Amino acid sequence: ANTPTWVQHISFEVPDMDALNAAKAHIEAQGIGVIGPTFHGIFRSIYFFDLNGHRLELACNIGTLEQQAELKRIAPLMLEEWSRTKRAPRHADWLHNDPHV
Predict the structure, then answer these.
(1) For residues 45 and 93, what is the distance between their CA atoms, to the nearest angstrom?
(2) What is the DSSP string of the chain?
């Protein structure tokens, strides 16, 4: 009961931004509210509730091979920090700098 509605959701991958934008337009044409596309560093996504009240996310990868390699490199460091502090690690803050803003 204390969990915000946006936290619990299921995400599905779409092939690219064209597919994401087309899905958004289709969903909105059905009278369903859509949030996004939201920038998440290595992917963009949209959020909406299905007719049963489940939060869904459609996402497309936009990250570079270099970004993926760096995330793989720092993943153990981030897990170690999370295990020790139980706070969000700051190792990947660079992902949240949207070049399109």
Answers:
(1) 18
(2) --S-TTTSEEEEE-SSHHHHHHHHHHHHHTT---EEEEE-SSEEEEEEE-TTS-EEEEEEE---HHHHHHHHHHHHHHHHHHHHH-S---TTGGGG--TT-
pTM: 0.77
Q: Which residues pair with 47 in a beta bridge?
A: 35, 57
Strands 43-49 and 55-61: antiparallel
- pLDDT tens string 9-67: 899 999 999 999 999 999 999 999 999 999 988 999 999 999 998 999 999 999 999 99
Structure tokens at 29: 């044409």
